[in-house]
Amino acid sequence: MITSASLKHKPAVFSSFTGLTVAAFHQLLPAFAEAYEADLDRRDQKREQPRQRQRGGGRSGALGRLEDKLVFILFYFKFYPVQVVQGYFFGLGQPQANEWVHRLTPILNQALGYACQLPARKTRDIGQVLAACPGLEFIIDGSERPIRRPKDKEKQRTHYSGKKKRHTVKNNIISDKRTRKIKALSPTCAGKKHDKKLADEHGVTFPLGSKLWKDTGFQGYEPDHIQTFQPKKKPKGGELTPQEKASNTVISSQRIGVEHTIGGVKVYHIVRDVFRNIRVGFDDLVMETACGLHNLRLDHPLTLAR
Question: Is 164:191 a contact under the CB 8 Å cutoff?
């Protein structure tokens, strides 16, 4: 059975199982404890009758320690196994694994919020966050995630991605070019929606004097009072000049950082594999949480012993 105690003396294994270094895990743990206590308070307030015994009374469960609960949900995000497998690794049945997954995911998200690692979502907050970034250099890109084929024909049509040739959901990501941290995340939408249209609907206001790198999916997206860089499309029936090709190469070399950022988020298979959960809003919650985990990982990179 996987426990935090069995992993803590094996840093490489710990990082492989959770996606975080031991240092990052222990930085997150106090915030996770705070969020967990807040969740218990909310549950107590919803009780029809007052609690008859103190918290922690009774038999200790398989996830008795807070550290084990955090390892449990990080392992789920990292590998995204079916719930019967998740339960087997942690000494739980499938119904218990399902309950803990849905209980701990919002707590993990809230903990990352306490630790100031989540991307901004509201337009007002995004402007403040971007303005605080030194250099004011940003990269915007779209990220699609596969989902199960919807049964409803209208949902099949709206979620079918012509680019990915499968049913997907999508977010736009704005990252800080220097740190590669995700500073803003758009709402989750159906995969058919164009990147530029989603950016227009999101309505982000960039700080005056910002520089923004984008790809050809954002053709025509020109926020006010900023400088944008985008590769030039090959004209229909024509060719790019050597100067245009050289310019495209330079822009692509600058934009590659956002591909590394998206790859860092998709270290967590829950936002990489076909998403199976159909609970409303859960797809958006896990994407925001995975972005927060990516930001935390950047503060504590894994260093390999020589």
Answer: yes
Provide the β-strand partners of residue 174.
140, 184
| C-alpha closest to that of 28 among 101, 103, 117 | 117
- Which tokens go with 238? 């024509």
Q: Which amino acid is at 222?
A: E
CA distance 172 to 153: 25
Q: Are 90 and 62 in contact (CB under 8 A)?
A: yes
The pTM assigned to this predicted structure is 0.92
What is the SS3 string spanning the chain? CCCHHHHCCCHHHHHHHHCCCHHHHHHHHHHHHHHHHHHHHHHHHHCCCCCCCCCCCCCCCCCCCHHHHHHHHHHHHHHCCCHHHHHHHCCCCHHHHHHHHHHHHHHHHHHHHHCCCCCECCHHHHHHHHHCCCCCEEEEEEEEEEECCCCCHHHHHHHEECCCCEEEEEEEEEEECCCCCEEEECCCEECCCCHHHHHHHHCCCCCCCCEEECCHHHCCCCCCCCEEECCCCCCCCCCCCHHHHHHHHHHHHHHHHHHHHHHHHCCCHHHCCCECCCCCCHHHHHHHHHHHHHHHHHHCCCCCCC
One digit per residue, pLDDT tens: the chain, 306 residues? 898 889 988 999 999 999 999 999 999 999 999 999 999 989 888 877 776 666 666 566 789 899 999 999 999 999 999 999 999 999 999 999 999 999 999 999 999 999 999 999 998 899 999 999 999 999 999 999 999 999 999 999 999 998 888 999 999 999 999 999 999 999 999 999 999 999 999 999 999 999 999 998 999 999 999 999 999 988 888 888 889 899 989 988 888 888 899 999 999 999 999 999 989 999 999 999 999 999 999 999 876 443
